[in-house]
Design brief:
heterodimer; A: mainly alpha; 8 helices; B: mainly alpha; about 0% strand
Chain lengths: ~230, ~210
Amino acid sequence: MNWKWDLFFDSFPIIVKGLKVTISLTIICYIVSLLLGFVWVFFQRQPIKPLKWLMGWVMEFIRSTPPLVQLFFLYYAWPTIPYIGVTLEPFTCAIIGLGLHMSTYIGEVYRSGIESIDKGQWEAATALNFTTGQKWKKIILPQAIPPIIPMLGNYFIILFKEVPLASTVGVLGILALANNYGAAHFRYLEAITVVALLFLILSYPSSLIINWIEKKVNRRFDKDLALKDS
Amino acid sequence: MKGLKITLTVLVCSAVLSYFIAIFAGLCRLSRFWIVRTITTVYVEIFRGTSLIVQLFWFYYAIPMLFGFDIGSNLIAGVLAISLNYGAYMSEIVRGSIIAVDDGQREASTALNLSSFDRMRLIIFPQAFRMMLPEFSNYLIQMLKATSLVSLIGMMDILYFADRYLNSNPSATFTTFSLVLIFYFIMALPLIYMSKKAEKFSKKGVAK
């Protein structure tokens, strides 16, 4: 055991500075992927078959290739494409890369939420002469959104854990700072441990919060059922 | 693209190891003894709570320093990190599916005077296992993606060779990275197909 507390305390404030970047990146990526998720669902529900088919494959492709490679692709290869290629800042690159990757998962979550709604609800809404907009706004979405909230929360935590990947394209998050610190002092042990600790401190309470939300949402549904029975 | 071999080796090794860890940890979390339960819960929460890339670095840099022994090679560090991480995730699935097996099954096997080991082996586990299959194959795809991270600790996988190729021909970035993406997709295709199959299999012949 050669653990040095002074290095631990020395590196701590330096690494914590990167927390701001890591958290803001997580939140921005999450918003981007929430919005893009809608786009995927929209394409999945297209009546035009070839378009739907094509988008399904694109989605599968993004889902099943590693986000690390996608980041490298965006960062190194995208600028070399003629006409559409632009050099991206590391931060923007990470937002696009991770946001896009996560959005395919979020899209699946949306889809499962929408598909879980009973067909009778659609038919009833049509029978009541609702317009398409009203149908979505008043009938489908209010029922589809609450059950998927815990799943969305889980994906937030997963995304938070994917964000250190962005350090490989030069975003100065906590992992990149720890690596720099380790390289400067020839000791990675303490710095890396700080990063691991920070992740644990942040993600464990949020997973507890999500569990709590999940219970709350479930209870609401149980109550609805109970009311129906009585 | 010699890196394919390393990527597949890491995938297969960590898949096998993580399934063992998952089943073992999942069973431990249901143990009668609180101490076994607590230890596994701490393990699962730690590995689920931190990100895989951090764990990878930790295994690669920190373990040799902390305990003064060399972990062997970066292959072992990579495989260990990936399988401990995914083992933790999958142990939750194991636990969930064992709990999901109907209580009546448990009572019936007690009534038939099976020992608690036989009860798990012959009655509960086979039923829980088919529930786990679809999730397990989903995680296999996730693991394939995770193997790309090992290039960061200096292993010579696909990504590493792509990087090295780029050093000698810097103009070919687009082609190279597209190729890497396509490689990963081709590797994932059979896994996607398998997960669909597994889903069908687990639904087949189950009275609901």
